[in-house]
Amino acid sequence: MSRVKDVTTSRMQNYLDFRNDPLAFFMKMQNGGEVVSLRTGLQPSFIVNSPDFVREILVAKDASFKKGRTDKVLRRTIHNGLLTAEKHDHKRQKSYYQPIFYKERLNSYAKTIVEETKSLVTSLQDVEYCKLNDEMMQLTLAIIARVMFATNVEENKKQLADAVSDTIEQTAQTLFTPIIVPLAIPTKGNKIHKKAINKLEDMIYCILHDAKQHPDQYKMTMVGMLLDTQNDTGSAIDDEEIRDQMMTMLLAGHETSANLLTWIFYALNQNPDVEQKLYEEIKMIDLEQSPFELYSKLNYTQLVIKEALRMYPPAWLIYRESEEAVELLGETFKAGSTFMICSYAIHRNEKVFPEPEKFKPERFADKKGEDVPKFAYLPFGGGSRSCIGSKFAIMETTLILAILVKEYKFKVEQETVTPDPLVSLRIKEGLKVKVEKR
Ligand code: HEM
């Protein structure tokens, strides 16, 4: 019996359902089988629900796949960075990226995270209400700019965060429409997108210029490392490639973390018992000790983060396209087939996560966490293209959470929140909170 099931609804209905509410669409499709064929004719599309097939695509047969549509759309902004590069180029780039996330570097990044978060604590002192999503975006942007580029974006943090946000919104809109209109065509969306790219490029080239003038100041940063790295032919990496990697970091390295933090604060509001337990753990900790040690001691905090990554995975959808005909677990798929792996839906499989709609950090405690089958939980993807910044992201989220929860309680001021699945999973219209000092 085939493990691939045909969808029963029409192609038009599926498209409309997807456009209308992508998350509800993927949730509905979860009951359709291990792999659901959307019967899209010449360009076959599949939704992958089963962890076994996820593993085949991301790990066992990953050489037969490329990123496909996501790649085409992201290239408009990133060009050829780690997030978009394929095959040999990807392997080469990943190898020179790895040291940026070595343990000793993470240790120094932790200090920056603490400094920037403390500065937010100070600036919130006289604030009664705020949009927490905006605060988190600006905070994680300031952090990524300092740790990767040794750049203080204090003065134009808001404009840069808006430029990244515009880029992401335009990217998501392009990703989910049938036709990709080239950036050169001046549609309203393309104009906004180009303006945002220009703003980010101005910053990037300005940093690059400065890094060449003052290499010592950039030694411990990603820019410094890239300037010292040689490519396959033994020559220095060119500016264009460094620009692409810096753009990659700006896009991949802060909105995901900002959204995760915003969702965590929302979940804490909904679950006061969890918030209390988290606070009890955090208040016992001396925040002045080595940030890296601090992070390793906050065990319950880790469970809260894991659970938030389950319920609200920032990278909620992974795309792959088969480059050749490929056999997966006895099923054959044509070249050019698209596979959609929706972690948001996969993480809500009640056979793996009982009471999936409940925020229960304890489900990841002790042995229980290990019981989760591999690829039934994949907030950072898997295989050769898994997230290179995952350790950094967990450390950053832990430290920010610890510092903010110790000082403040954020009371959500809106009745409902609606998830907004763009490139990363946001809260539609953001999260307005009342800021209360503890
Ligand atoms: C909570 C935060 C984050 C989440 C949930 C997340 C999730 C992911 C996922 C699922 C992928 C794989 C995408 C795919 O297979 O198509 C990915 C890739 C990537 N992430 Fe993250 N990410 C996070 C934070 C970060 C941070 C902080 C950085 C950098 C500092 C980063 C840099 C990257 C890069 C460069 C890739 C591409 C890796 C490759 O293709 O080899 N991410 N991320």
UniProtKB/TrEMBL annotation:
<dbReference type="Pfam" id="PF00067">
    <property type="entry name" value="p450"/>
</dbReference>
<dbReference type="InterPro" id="IPR001128">
    <property type="entry name" value="Cyt_P450"/>
</dbReference>
<dbReference type="GO" id="GO:0004497">
    <property type="term" value="F:monooxygenase activity"/>
</dbReference>
<protein>
    <submittedName>
        <fullName>Cytochrome P450</fullName>
    </submittedName>
</protein>
<dbReference type="InterPro" id="IPR017972">
    <property type="entry name" value="Cyt_P450_CS"/>
</dbReference>
<dbReference type="InterPro" id="IPR050196">
    <property type="entry name" value="Cytochrome_P450_Monoox"/>
</dbReference>
<dbReference type="InterPro" id="IPR036396">
    <property type="entry name" value="Cyt_P450_sf"/>
</dbReference>
<dbReference type="GO" id="GO:0016705">
    <property type="term" value="F:oxidoreductase activity, acting on paired donors, with incorporation or reduction of molecular oxygen"/>
</dbReference>
<feature type="binding site" description="axial binding residue">
    <location>
        <position position="387"/>
    </location>
    <ligand>
        <name>heme</name>
    </ligand>
</feature>
<keyword id="KW-0479">Metal-binding</keyword>
<dbReference type="GO" id="GO:0005506">
    <property type="term" value="F:iron ion binding"/>
</dbReference>
<comment type="similarity">
    <text>Belongs to the cytochrome P450 family.</text>
</comment>
<keyword id="KW-0408">Iron</keyword>
<dbReference type="InterPro" id="IPR002401">
    <property type="entry name" value="Cyt_P450_E_grp-I"/>
</dbReference>
<dbReference type="GO" id="GO:0020037">
    <property type="term" value="F:heme binding"/>
</dbReference>
<keyword id="KW-0503">Monooxygenase</keyword>
<keyword id="KW-0560">Oxidoreductase</keyword>
<keyword id="KW-0349">Heme</keyword>
